[in-house]
Amino acid sequence: MSQKIFIYQVLPRLFGNRNVTRKENGTIAENGCGKFEDFDEDTLARIQAMGFTHVWYTGIIRHATTTDYSAYGIPRQHPAIVKGKAGSPYAITDYYDVDPDLAENVDARMAEWESLIARTHAVGMKVIMDFVPNHVARQYKSICKPDGVRDLGEDDDTGMGFSVSNNFYYCVGQSFEPSIDLVAEAESPYQEFPAKATGNDRFDAHPGCNDWYETIKLNYGIDYCDAGGRSYHFNPIPSTWQKMTDILLFWASKGVDGFRCDMAEMVPAAFWSYATNIVKERYQHLVFIGEVYDTNQYRQYVGSGFDYLYDKVGMYDCVRDVICGRRPAASITYQWQYCDDIFDHMLYFLENHDEQRIASDFFCGDGYKAIPGVLTCALMQRNPFMVYSGQEFGEYGMDKEGFSGVDGRTTIFDYWSPRSLAEKCNLPAYHQEEKALAQYYQQILSMANRERIFYDGLFYDLMSANPASDNFNPQTQYAFLRKADDEVAFVVVNFSQESATANVVIPNHAFDFFAMPEKRVSAIDLLSGDVVDVELKRDSMFPVTLLPYSGRVFKFNIKMEKDYILNEHGKDEFPPAHSAEHLLNQVMVRKFHCGRSINAHIERKKSKMTFELAQKPTRQDEKEIEREMNKLIAEDLPVTYELVERSKISDSAMLDRLPESAGNVVRLVRIGDFDVCPCVGKHVRSTSQIGRFELLGTNWDEMEHIFRIRFKVIQ
Q: Among 183, 316, 493, 559, whose CB has the most other CB atoms within 10 angstroms?
């Protein structure tokens, strides 16, 4: 494996919407709606720069809505069977069409979706879309199906409750009469005869308010109401199997890279074996992600072709309880052990469109409290990790949007504009806490994808060797090791609101498991850049200090001699200005093909740097320097660290001035993919923390060809 999968889930209807009217139960005209085109190259590049490898675009296929698109030939939906003004993205009305809400030009909506797929690929990310196999909207009717395709239900015998040839289940002789009053603005009540079974396996004509009354169940050859109990009819292949496989092939042909399969466990595993074999034979790169809640069925669905499964009832529920203080951190051990043989297939997450927002009053009220959980889920194994858009900014999720009341979730039923997303393209508008939280996420994800330890390394849980003691608190602390080649990462997180000092035992067995020698090592915290010397001995302790709701990620090399340099600086500078120094060095190197600064004085109020240039820069050059610096700062590039043997440092590190007598190990500071330099000083977490770069003035020495720059950073 060369990269760890990080998925960014977005609901385009919400993500790009800049309308801040936020009227409860507002229409699309009142509250606005995000569009495909909101994901322009710059926006996608920002998502990719956060460390994401895949984007899951939620709600692409056309679904039931109260918005009238009949002028475009799109059938209207009766409002009584639509949840909310916008409607549920999981009440599909045409499997071969895309949501017109998301298009600037409704007639060109498919072309706009295909363009977004291409743009996403162009910035180096892959595309995941929803496949909703278990149910459709009550008024499903495809107007975009390819020639020769028979529509779902078109050939059904509605006089039979169940038939292997039918696509739906019927309540023979009964009208649809839900046990709730479906109040809606309509000239006439909704009528359905015979009534079809409801999507959440309700096989009568009277669904209630807690049922998926807006949907109807698809028939995959299971008779749920057989007199002898549930019976299976898979030979010959049911009609629904063939039609749904053709739908998967249709969307695969558009260039998507994977499907998130809604409520996959409500569809028989035998169908998934059939469909995934056919689709993957033609599109080998495709991944299938299944929403499966029954942990007892995990292995069955992995065996039927799923690459990844939601680990909701397992790891999500556990980590959430740890964050909220309802379970000890040590309980995380049991969750990964339960899936130890299939852990590579588990998709970890702390938010998605179904779950409550971390920062909501229903979860823990503060996005920062989840950071130890994010560190654990993102770094513990090789499996994927998912973030729901807005999570990285601490989206509150406490709006009363309309159909979705105040429930701690971001609505999927209403036209709305979540505050954190509406402001995301205007970084100065963020509160400092929101920016810092997003930078923490970026640092974690970028580190996990850069370090082979995390995307392809071995894992060792340290909890069994660290029971409750004065040195370690398994109620709020969790620790583990990762290893790849000669490098080891020691990860400790603190779920507590209190700072802590832990002395974590690394047991004898871990030394044997990793073939790790006893020796003194220099370890660097990949989050802070701190370097510590530690004596590695069997059953000895690794001391670590932990801030509230945080973690430490120490990396060391078990073959490297403890002989390192940091850089030429002998003091700690003001971190924003010090980080700006690194950026300015690289800007000058790239623009003028010169060396790095020959003299620098970096201070809080004003800084100076000196460069040897071939000729005097023009006034236009000076303006471009300032403009490029502020552009890089706005890109919010992550600042990361590593200890590297001098012999393994690439030319890109620009160590031409490093003396031959220098030590064997160097601490490198990376700013995104833009600059890498040996350095000991303290830095910001990512470039947006630098502030605004202001060039105060310059001097040119014609005799020496020396160019001096005076600058400051404004917080």
A: 493
